[in-house]
Amino acid sequence: MTDWRRTAPLALCMVLVLAACGRSESTPGAGGASQTGGSQPAAGGGPVTGTLDVWAMGTEGEKLSVLAKDFMAANPGVTVKVTAIPWDAAHDKIRNALTTTGPDVTLVGTTWMGEFAKLGGLDKTPSDIDKGQFYEGAWNSTVVGGASYGVPWYVETRVLYYNTDLAKKGGMSDAPKNWNDLKALAQDLKKAGAKSAIELQPGGTGSWQTFMPFFWQKGGEIMDGSGKFTLNSQACTDALTYYQSFFKEGLATKAAADTPMEARFAKGQVGAFISGPWMIQVVTDAGAKAGTFTVAPQPKEQSGTSFVGGGDLAVLANSNNKPAAWAFVKYLSKPEVQVKWYATVKDLPAVKSAWSDQTLSGDKLLKVFGDQLNDAKAPPAIPKWEEIAAQIDTAIEQVTVGSMSPADGCKSMQDQATSIGSGS
């Protein structure tokens, strides 16, 4: 899964049973002509009825009742039951539900889609959902073997955060445009007094999410069109050499610090880092004052590609109420509902047109994330991705600590990925 940022612990599953009430009109579908490819035919028209069981994790599970009430007001024949479950239990619970009984609709971590679709547990996306309304990188997380098995619900991507006061003190006034600029910014931040010029993950869980954008920016691809892994490439060696250089030159630290990164960033001890939109509030809460930091798109080499993660919505193949299930998914994909969801939990919209709302377009920091989402990728939706990602994390760590060369690191990634296989 990719939504590790909000693993709010829940001692018990919280079930919210919501009574339907309100207007009598049915919810219109989201989107237009068929663009899914290998999708299910559009569901029949008419009002939807019955009971829907919906699972969602973390904060999303706690707050989804807000939107479920609105959906039921527009569809008085439907009762929605939302069950909030913790992220750390979600994978196994969903996997078990695919072959037994479970929800009609569930939130799915983007890197789980390949596994669950391969098991035959997810319903194909109806043909009347227009993939063009979603960010391409996010939509591709739902595509397995040429067919889509859900829709992106919310997204996140990674951009550069940096201390503008330190940057100016060090001599740089503009955001870095390319890799040379990023290295120069790190050097200036170090010169201006930052103990850690730029925080990059030296390895360990999830470090691939920080490294892979550099790989993509050099033109690298994880797999080719035939399904063969292509990690052992010049693009990988170049990217890993560049990544390693920050550690070799003392611009990034290898050892974990006792104080949280956000607190050190607020104090000017960390000059820059790469992360997602949730960190705006995190660093602000840690004491970083408005105007002392900013965000910028990923620097470009061949491209400025970043990582896209988030959460997808899927309907289980064994659902007994697929018409209502897909109607609920379409409702959650309406631009105005996406904006309301952002206002509720701060999840960034996966639907592009939602970003024209002043709530998002009027925020100069958020706008950078919206722009970055136009050039962002997810890893391939293959069943074995989680296992492969763990091996990439290990290779990154071996390279950053100096026990393996970048070229050997890329070869290790390739060998491990080939040995594990895609699982498709």
Secondary-structure topology with pairs:
Layout: E1 14-18, E2 50-57, H1 58-63, H2 65-74, E3 78-85, H3 87-97, E4 105-109, H4 113-118, H5 136-140, E5 143-144, E6 147-148, E7 151-157, E8 159-163, H6 164-170, H7 179-191, E9 196-199, H8 208-217, H9 234-248, H10 261-266, E10 270-275, H11 279-285, E11 293-296, E12 306-315, H12 322-332, H13 335-345, E13 348-349, H14 358-361, H15 364-372, E14 376-377, H16 385-400, H17 406-420
Parallel strand pairs: 2-3, 2-4, 9-10, 12-14
Antiparallel strand pairs: 1-3, 4-12, 5-6, 7-12, 7-13, 8-10, 8-11
Summarize the structure.
Helices cover 38% and strands 17% of the residues.
Folded structure, characterized:
This protein has 424 residues and is an alpha/beta fold. The chain has 2 domains: 4-157 and 309-377, Periplasmic binding protein-like II (D-Maltodextrin-Binding Protein, domain 2); 159-307 and 381-420, D-Maltodextrin-Binding Protein, domain 2, CATH 3.40.190.10. Helix content is 38%, strand content 17%. Strands 1, 2, 3, 4, 7, 12, 13 and 14 form an 8-stranded mixed beta sheet that branches. Strands 9-10-8-11 form a 4-stranded mixed beta sheet, sandwiched between helices. The radius of gyration is 22 Å and the shape is globular.
